[in-house]
Design goal:
With about 425 residues, the protein is α/β, with parallel strands linked by helices. The chain has a single domain, classed as Amidase signature (AS) enzymes (Alpha-Beta Complex), CATH 3.90.1300.10. Helices cover about 35% and strands about 15% of the residues. The protein contains twelve helices and eleven strands. Strands 1-3-2-4-6-5-10-11-9-7-8 form an eleven-stranded mixed beta sheet, with helices on both faces. The protein is globular, with a radius of gyration of 20 Å. About 55% of the residues are buried.
């Protein structure tokens, strides 16, 4: 869509949706003023624009330069229409934010449901058609979770493909930058733009989106985790997941129901230990100074990292490396691994238990094991709420993940559907 079209929709719908913390009117134009539109998670620096990080006290009140990913989008002709809401310091999967407020999941105008986190505003903006794509960060599922519960595509690369320069960290050993879009092709092409070496942590790429999107995946061998091996699933999510597996089989892929040697949720706790331990070391001074105006649940999560000693953190890093080696060896026998993205659809915000994180139960494994991952919409529950199919790939094989996602999208029956926004109009 053109930047003017995006701004018109933002003015019409965002007063209630609250996807954006700041709208750029006029947009921050790239080299082509009619290029595609993108929104940026408010954890990523834009020169001269405060990076709020979902907090009352900005992380950086006046960034000196654009994050590398923003530079690359502008150079490629994308126009930035604003910055989107995030869970405070990106530490949460529900999408809640008691410091500055949470966006509204656009699939229910009557009930304020979880938008998913932490890239909450980015998912809402894309789902509501307020931009073509949006950037998010993903440390334990923060691109794929909101994509699943908001009915859009969420693409998380493996580490080393996309620059983290100008992206405020949560856990440096886990952090990645990914893309949310309404379809796999747009997400893949945006990933191609932001990928490539940066003389720092990004050492791979650039990603070849067109090769991935044109790849023939018929006959490829996929492992699908049986519902009984996925822990508690909402019955509607289970139904949509099994239907998705069937559609892939009908499309000519060899899909086997297989129990991995390590359950996805076995990565949940060790991934959380790394997040808390690394996050506390990065943000402890800020938390001590500003805890009174922070979301109390975010403070509690970070403070859990105080009890993670340097020795325990080093041990956790070694355990992770061993876990990666064994899982990668098993996954080498397949071209992809399937599961639901989230085990439940979006619940009402006022029913959420902040002591739990079920939305990230099946997503953290991709970060812990350093696998590329994609969430693709796979249908609506009987209550009209989206569910996502998660496709994980071999290390550094974003091409296969995108190819499989595009193949599923063609047979999914989703057909680019959007939520009815009539209830969000003034």
């Amino acid at each position: 869509m053109t930047p003017s079209d995006a701004l018109a929709r933002i003015r019409r719908y965002d007063p209630r949706l609250r996807a954006f913390v700041q709208v750029f009117d006029p947009p921050l134009y790239g080299e082509d003023e009619d290029g595609p539109t993108v929104a940026i998670k408010d954890l990523i620096d834009i020169q001269g624009v405060p990076t709020g990080g979902g907090a009352q006290v900005a992380l950086d009140g006046d960034p000196a330069r654009h994050a590398r990913v923003v530079e690359r989008l502008l150079q490629a002709g994308w126009s930035v229409v604003g910055k989107t809401h995030t869970v405070e310091l990106a530490y949460g999967g529900w999408g809640t934010n008691r410091a500055v407020g949470a966006p509204w999941n656009p699939w229910d105008a009557a009930v304020h449901r979880a938008p998913g986190g932490s890239s909450s505003g980015s998912a809402v903006a894309v789902a509501a058609g307020l931009c073509d794509a949006a950037l998010g960060s993903d440390t334990g599922g923060s691109v794929r979770i909101p994509a699943a519960v908001c009915g859009v595509v969420g693409l998380k690369p493996g580490r080393g493909l996309v620059s983290l320069q100008g992206v405020h960290p949560l856990a440096p050993s886990l952090d990645t930058v990914g893309v949310l879009a309404r379809d796999v092709a747009t997400a893949a092409r945006a990933l191609a733009v932001i990928s490539g070496p940066d003389d720092d942590s990004a050492v791979r790429g650039p990603f070849d989106a067109e090769a991935a999107l044109s790849a023939d995946v018929r006959g490829r061998r996929l492992a699908a985790i049986p519902p009984a091996a996925l822990g508690e699933l909402d019955p509607e999510v289970e139904r949509l997941y099994l239907e998705a597996v069937g559609r892939l089989r009908d499309a000519g892929l060899a899909v086997e129901m297989v129990v991995p040697p390590r359950a996805l949720e076995d990565s949940f706790t060790p991934n959380g230990l790394l997040m808390a331990g690394e996050g506390w070391r990065i943000w402890k001074d800020r938390i001590r100074a500003h805890a009174a105006v922070m979301d109390p649940w975010i403070v509690r999560r970070f403070e859990a990292g105080r009890d993670v000693s340097d020795a325990r953190l080093a041990e956790a890093v070694r355990e992770r490396a061993e876990g990666q080696r064994s899982f990668h060896a098993w996954l080498a026998g397949y071209d992809g691994l399937l599961s639901p993205t989230c085990p439940i659809p979006a619940p009402p915000l006022d029913t959420i238990d902040e002591t739990t994180s079920p939305l990230s139960r099946l997503t953290r494994a991709a970060n812990y094991l350093d696998l590329p991952g994609l969430s693709v919409p796979c249908g609506l529950t009987s209550g009209g709420l989206p569910a996502g199919l998660q496709i994980l790939g071999a290390p550094a094989d974003e091409e296969m993940v995108v190819a499989l996602g595009a193949a599923f999208e063609r047979v999914s029956g989703w057909d680019g559907r959007r939520p009815d926004l009539a209830g969000f109009e003034p």
